[in-house]
Design goal:
Largest sheet: 5 strands, antiparallel
Strand order of the largest sheet: 1-2-5-4-3
Order of helices and strands: EEEEEHH
Distance between the termini: 40 Å
Number of helices: 2
Helix content: 10-25%
Radius of gyration: 13 Å
Number of strands: 5
Structural class: alpha+beta
Oligomer: single chain
Number of domains: 1
Shape: globular
Length: 88
């Protein structure tokens, strides 16, 4: 498990499974998408404009991710700051 944050895009991706391919992406809302493998297991979670303290409990419940609760809570408590565009 790990995550990567792109400050240019202000997008966070949380990798829950390291192996396998994404077979399906489920949009949760306008900021969150969940990627599933061919077996229906969550591969990762994309969050746009994450900021800080974004919700995970609904995803934990819906996708049976209780084994990842502590990791997701630690990611949620991190502050993510986008790159501020420089105006000429």
């Amino acid at each position: 498990m790990h995550y990567s944050y792109d400050p240019q895009a202000d997008a966070l991706y949380i990798y829950l499974q390291e192996d396998g391919d994404v077979a399906k992406t489920i949009p949760i809302d306008d900021r969150r998408n969940v990627d599933l493998d061919a077996g229906g297991r969550v591969r990762g979670i994309e969050i746009l404009s994450p900021g800080t303290n974004f919700p995970f409990q609904d995803l934990i419940d819906r996708f049976q991710l209780s084994e990842f609760t502590a990791f997701l809570e630690s990611v949620s408590s991190t502050t993510f700051k986008p790159v501020t565009p420089v105006t000429p």
